[in-house]
Every structure is written in structure tokens, then in C-alpha cells.
Design goal:
alpha+beta; Alpha-Beta Plaits; single chain; 92 residues; globular; 26% helix
Length: 92
């Protein structure tokens, strides 16, 4: 597998609206591993690891605004080298 890995920071109204769980469902449908977790500044950090096309599809979903209940203002994305390969997609 030629894996891609990115971290994304999603800003806007993304906490308390089911964003992490929707991201988890989307990632699992795409076969992407990683996590979505709330940060203290009100944003959500997403780690996406998997086939480049699937990872890109998840990032596109984040940039498109995620679930209807969320309001995404900005998504920052950067390449990432994970210390360990994730085994699933978790929320935390």
C-alpha cells in the first residue's frame, strides 16, 4: 500500500454537533485510518492515513463542511509522518 498521511485542523462550529462521529463514519466508509479529536481552542484535529485517493476524499469532505450540523470556517492541512500506523479510526 502506498499510504498517505495528513493532519487537518478544522475550525468553525465543529464541537458539540456530531462532527467527530460523522468524520469517523466517513473515514470508515472510505477505508481511512486515524482519528478525530476535539482541541481546547474549539477546533477538531483529524489524522487521516490510508490510500492517497481515499485520504484526499476525506479531506475534501472536511473542506466541504462535514456534517450538516457543523459550520466549517477553515481547514488547515499538512503532510504528517505518524510514529505508528493507526489500526482504526477513533474519536477522542
Amino acid at each position: 500500500m502506498s499510504a498517505a498521511c495528513f493532519k487537518a485542523w478544522v475550525h468553525g462550529q465543529v464541537q458539540g454537533v456530531g462532527f467527530r462521529y460523522s468524520a469517523q463514519m466517513q473515514a470508515r466508509q472510505l477505508g481511512v485510518l486515524g482519528y478525530a479529536k476535539n482541541l481546547e481552542d474549539g477546533s477538531v484535529e483529524v489524522l487521516a492515513y490510508g490510500e492517497p485517493q481515499q485520504v484526499e476524499a476525506l479531506i475534501d469532505w472536511l473542506k466541504a463542511g462535514g456534517p450538516r450540523s457543523a459550520h466549517v470556517d477553515n481547514v488547515l492541512v499538512e503532510a504528517h509522518q505518524p510514529a505508528q500506523v493507526p489500526h482504526s479510526f477513533t474519536t477522542g
